[in-house]
Structures are given as C-alpha cells and as structure tokens.
C-alpha cells in the first residue's frame, strides 16, 4: 500500500503539472489567437488596399482561404540588418530585393528553420503600381507550385512597409550570367552608341551647315552678272548638278596662301595653282574626305583674277559645263569655292602640264616621239567628238589651243578651260556674238570677222593644233627664210609643192614609211580643217574616221583662210582689240567692223 503522504505528493505534482499544462496551453492558444488576429488584421489590411478590387473580386475575394504565412517584421529587420545596402540584391519597378539569413526571434515558423536563406522584396513607397502588384503576386504565388516557379514563403505587413518573402535562389537571374560578365562591354557599348549618336548629330549638323553654305554659294553663282546668255537653257545652269563646295581654309592651306612656288601658270581667267589637298575639317588631323577627294590628293586650283573683265561669266560657264561632262579626254572637275571676291575652280591635277610646255620647248620636244604625238592628235579628236556629238548637250569650246590641252602621266590629252564654251541645242548649227573672245592664231576667220561660231570653228582650231604637233612650232610665231609667216600658210605652200613632209619636225627624222604616211595624213586632215569656208571643213566624226584609216580616200584641201602676208586683213577695216592675245591669253575681245 502506498503511504498516504506519498499519494498526496503525487496528486499535488499531478495538479501542478495539469495546471502548468493548462497555463501553457492557454498561453499557446492565446499566442496563436493573437497571431491569428494579427494575420487576420494583415489580411484585412491587404484586402483594403486601394485599387486592388479590379483583380481580386473573384475566387474567395482574392486571399481568403490561402495559406499565406505571416512573417514578423522584427525577424525580417534582424535578418536584413535593417535593410542594409550590403544585403541588397537589386531593384525593380516594385522595389528593392534583399538577401537574408532568416532569424526567428520566437520559434520556428511553419517549416522555415533557423538560418534558412530568404529573399525579401520590399514594396517601394514611391511605387505607383506597387499596391496592386503586391496583392497580385501574393494571391497568384499562393496558388502556384512548380519546380520551375520561384517558391513563395510568405509576407509581412508593418504599417507602411509591405514585404513578400521568397525562397532564396543562389545563382541569381539568367541575365546575370547572360549579360553580367559582359557588363563592362555593355557599358562601353552604351557609351560608344551615345558617342556615335552625338557624333552623328554633329556630323549631320555640319552637313546641314555645309549644305546651307553650298546653297548660298550656288545662289550667289546664279546671280552673277552677264550670265543669262549661256544659262537660260537646261535647269537654269547649276540647279541639279553635283557641284562640290570646297572650304576656303582648306584651299589656302593647300596652296600655302597661293604661294608663287605652287603657281602652274596664268591665263586670261587668272592664275592656276598646283596643290596637295589638305582638308582642315578635322583640325590638324586631316582625315576627313570631301566628296571623293582624299587627303594628299593633288589638285589644280584656278583662281579668278579680280582684273578679269569676263571672268564671272567664264567662272559660271566652266562650272556648269564641266559638271555635266565626263570623258577620258576632258579634264576632271572636282568642285569650286566662293569666298568674298575670290572665286575658284578645283580640278584634278594633270601631272605633265600642257601640250605647249613640251611642244614649243626645243629640249622637251624631244620627249614627244611620233607615236606620242599621234596619240595626242587622236585624243583631242575624241574629246571634240564627245563635245560635239555624244555628250548630253552639244558644246562648242571656242578656245581650243595647245596650252588648253593637258597631258596626264602617260601623255593622254585632256581638253581643259571651258570658260568661253557655249551650249548648242541639238537643232542649232551656228551662233553669232558681238563679244569675240579667244586666242589669235587659233580663231576661225568667220569668227574673227563676223562673230560667227559653230562646231566648224572648233575644227579650225583642231587643224591648227594638228599642224603645230607635226611641226613643233606655234602657228602665229612661225618664221621661214623670208621672214614671219603663219605655220598654216607654210604648210599650204609645201602641200602645193608636193613637199608636205618637209613640214615635219626635224626631231622626227627616223620615221618608218608607215609613220611618214601617218604624218602625211595628219597634215592633210589639218589643212582640211583650216580651209577658208567653214562648210568645207570636215565634221569631227569625219576627221576621226580619216585618222583611223576608215576613209579610203581623203578629199583635197582648199586654200586656208588667210595669211600674215595677205592683204585681206589690211584691206578690211582693222578691228579694235580690247585685249589682244597672240598666244596664251584666252580673253581676247574683238569689236566687229
């Protein structure tokens, strides 16, 4: 039998144990009740968030019936070290996200153990859509479970702070691996793109400014006085043409301020300078290209003389015509420049200067063998054929002479200096002017006497040049034993005597029979071109055919126009020469009888 005292002890212990158990249970139930009320309050607060009704009217009013775990704010604060920046993973439109090792300050909550790594998404107080997104994310993620969806652990609401707690995923996001290792490259790329946009904007602005400058220059070009005679035809002269405008600073730098060392020569238009083009567009780096003209490209700059009376007309004439023409036997126009009273034309530089530089110098003439001379004659004829027949517009040069035939590095001829040229419509055969201009010795008689010019006027000049190439002397400074006479007259007298080969340059004394036949043919073609009547002269296509042996028999030439010894000019009323040129000046103006 158990002693009565022992029984009392057992009963007392049992009562105390039951009391403690009931007390503990009451405390636990009270705590759970309190937590339940807190959770209920949080859910109610969640339900009363503004602007949330649109998404959550269906299915138990959004959050009811879902096992959303409520985390204590104190634990979250402790885990994040009060949302220290060291724990910040990143930030989106919703707000910042923090990484934490969860610390439960009371007990384990649900299945979340001490030290479990979590990610806490904190609703930014500045977020405009955050309240809606907060509830949306809670409701949806509480319904979803899948191995490829991030796991929602719970939420926390503490006054104005609203948080969503996820299971922490250690390897961050896909973009971190996809782009994270390349962030420097991405940053550099962004900077490069920004600089590219900035540079493009600057470039487009510069181009716009250059375009305005070019437009102004073209407008100035269109308003030059005395230009209406030539340019009423075809788009009013310059419109629609790709004329490149060069900067005056670049031209000054290229020519060393038009230093005499760079001067190639001077004609009626003005001086011509040789330069290595320097583009100052990129300050001392000289790297930008202007049109197709690269740094160091050799150019020839023709500067309009301020003393030139006809220069303005010639300036526009040359620009307009050369912008329309392209042929291997024409000099290439690159562009122009207008700066105050200075007006310049820029050409591709032709290294061997002009035909007269070689032809009329006894020493240099030795470099011109017959093959080269014949190539030059044929090239000039081809250039004229293009101007008279095959270009988009018919061009009468009006100033064809040896000094206007440039020679490239392999001695191909290129016709230049179109300042006196005129456009003919296709149904026009000749025209007439009171302002005669050209170079005496190359001008056709009908032009000198009556101001009439045509394609046959150019053929007269071609005939003179052909005879000069054969002989090696100038037409109007030729001398024989009896004194001064024209080369044309001398050639005709030799032809009449059947001794035409005596006209041949003495430097050409070792020619084959075939070459001598070629020389004889060139003399005959030259004499046909300088006949007195324009109608008797061959057209350029006929002259080309004759030179190519495509014509079986050549017609016999008639007497040339006039000679220095003839009385024709003395008997005629002597014309008044405003500016007379025996050789090189292209601006000879003659007033008719």
TrEMBL record:
Catalytic reaction list: L-seryl-[protein] + ATP = O-phospho-L-seryl-[protein] + ADP + H(+); L-threonyl-[protein] + ATP = O-phospho-L-threonyl-[protein] + ADP + H(+)
UniProt enzyme class: transferase
UniProt GO MF annotations: ATP binding; protein serine kinase activity; protein serine/threonine kinase activity
Coiled-coil region list: none
GO cellular component term of the entry, any: plasma membrane
InterPro entries named in the record: Kinase-like_dom_sf, Prot_kinase_dom, Ser-Thr/Tyr_kinase_cat_dom, Ser/Thr_kinase_AS
SUPFAM superfamilies, alphabetized: Protein kinase-like (PK-like)
Protein kinase domain sequence ranges: 258-562
Keywords: ATP-binding, Disulfide bond, Glycoprotein, Kinase, Membrane, Nucleotide-binding, Serine/threonine-protein kinase, Signal, Transferase, Transmembrane, Transmembrane helix
Bilayer-crossing regions: 6-31, 184-206
Keyword Glycoprotein: yes
Entries under PANTHER family matching the protein: OS06G0693000 PROTEIN, RECEPTOR-LIKE SERINE/THREONINE-PROTEIN KINASE SD1-8
Name of protein: non-specific serine/threonine protein kinase
Species annotation: Handroanthus impetiginosus
